[in-house]
Amino acid sequence: MKGKTEPPGPFPREGDPHFASQEDIMKRKTIQERYEEKISMEPMTGCWFWTGSEKKGEYSQSPENGRKIRGHRFSWKLYRGPVPDGLYVLHHCDTPQCVSPYHLFLGSGAEHRRSGKRV
Length: 119
What we know:
Layout: H1 22-27, H2 31-36, E1 39-41, E2 48-50, E3 61-64, E4 67-70, H3 71-79, E5 88-91, E6 104-107, H4 109-118
Antiparallel strand pairs: 1-2, 3-4, 5-6
């Protein structure tokens, strides 16, 4: 159709259930804001417990690119940056459910195995 100036692709329009105004978009929370809403801080130890979809007795998990990763690893990426290949995100506090970036550090596979024996 010549002369028609329709934008390419199916864009939602007002009234469409997928339409979001600029005001709606500006009100959306960041990943960090949504993550922090699900953190419970323990004042005695300083541990942060992620209360999202934690399964009893297991590490917490957070969504990343449509898959789940362990909460402490997600916390490291969110607050500290990428995890280099071959390194693990470990806990100074030895509390597997803790996601406090202040209690986390990067370590080798050998350190990871040693830290698992202490718990």
